[in-house]
Structure formats: C-alpha cells, structure tokens
Amino acid sequence: MPLIVVPTPLGNLRDITLRALDDLRACDVVVAEDTRVARKLLSALGLPGKEILSYHEHSTEAVARRILERARNERVALTSDAGMPAISDPGSELIAAAREAGVVVEVLPGPSAAIGAAVLSGFPLRRFLFEGFPPRTSAARRSAFERAYASGITTIWYESPRRIHATLADLDRVAPGVQVFLVREYTKLHEQQLLGTPAHVAAALAQPVRGEIVLVLKASARHISAAPTSNEIDERIDAMLATGASVSAIAKSLAERGCGTRRHLYARVSERKRLRGASPGKR
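The structure assignment produced for this chain is given below.
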C-alpha cells in the first residue's frame, strides 16, 4: 500500500482537488504535523472520525517507522497544515524514510504558496529558486540576500509576520532598488499583494502584520546580461570620487546599477579612495 502525499488548501476549502478528497475518504489513517489543524480540516470537508497520527520536526525515527509499517498494509495519507507537504515541512523526512524502506510513495498535485506567489509576481520564471525561510540573524540574512541578488534569477522566500519588517530592512540595505513582490494570506479572506522596493512594501504592509507571507525577489536583468568588468567598475568609482561624492553614495548608486552588492561596493570604493589618497599625483 502507498504513502499518499495529499496537498491541502492554503485558505480556500474549494482548492481541495477531487483526487485529494477521494484519497482522504479512502485512507485508513491521516498523518499531520498538527492534529488539531487536520481534524478541523477533515471536519470541514465532511470527513470526521478519521484516525490522525502526528508527525512533526521533533518526531523520532521510531515514530516514522511505525507510520511506515502501517503504510505497508494500509492507505496512509500524509498532509500538511496548508499546501503541499514536504515544502519547508517535516513531511520531506518521512518521504525520504519511505523511499529508503521501500514503501511506495504517491504525490497528488495541489496548492503551493511558493509557486502561486511566484506566478502572481509576474517576474521572470524561466529559472527560479525556492529558498525557504531566510536566516534568523540580520547578518546572515543580508549575506543570503546578497547571494540571491547576485545570482541573477528570481528567488522565493517564506517569512513569518514577526520578522518580515526586519527582513525587508535587511533587503533594503543590500539592494534598495530591487523589485520585490509580497503576498500575505494567499487565497484567504484578507489576502494582500504588494509590489515595489523593499522600503515601499514595508510601508504598505497592513498593521499589525498577521498571517503567512511569501516574498519573491525579481531577477535583475543587469545580472543576467553582461555585467560590468572589474576595470569598468573601478573607472566608474574613480569618476564619481572625482566629483566629490561620498563613499556611501557611490556604493548605493553602483549597487542600483547592478555593479554588485552595496556592502561589497562600499569596501571597494573605500579602498579606491584610499589608493587615490596615497597616490603621489593626489597630494
């Protein structure tokens, strides 16, 4: 018998698929991260009374083994609190364990907040990268965003309402001109969609911030096309230094033109300014 991965609605119950309903009706047991959420969903779908087992990020290998033993002889449906199981969800570990144990796995197509938000953004999606949740510390977040911005492809992130303002502030420090799309409470009654720079999106967020959030960073055409060479960047820096512009202003201007991240450019401009000051011709 298979372990059946069953996507659940993100917010609108009508997003449940006919196949998902069929398998939830036919299964012997439902596996869920939060049994309370699963019980509420099953009741709303007219499927009360199902046996529900808990599997979450702190579940032991013994719990996984017990679930998979049942999947050898019974129909076991793996669900998530909302959307496609295993995406930033502990279900991925249970699926991997099922593969290793030789248990058949079936995955039903269904809702995904990451994909829905990416399509809503209108950003280029010939290539894209799902990054999950950003790091929790400011320095690590800035480094992650620097790498994402420099990659030249659209990136998709989840974020909690408690950290979204700090996350947008860090993104603004790294790439203040980058276009971002934020969707909050996707498919739910109070869905909010915002498009603009990190500062614009932060200012427009409903207060207090509540609900699930997906953040999409647009790929920069400047990174996809030929990037300026190292010599060209130095020439631009020297030309701007000659006008008396500050190191901070130069770094910000060049970052907005796709010459790199603001932090790295600040260090580079500072070094060019130091070298100019040390040059005999600049006494």
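Interim note for the steering committee: The mean pLDDT is 90. The first strand starts at residue 3 and ends at 5.
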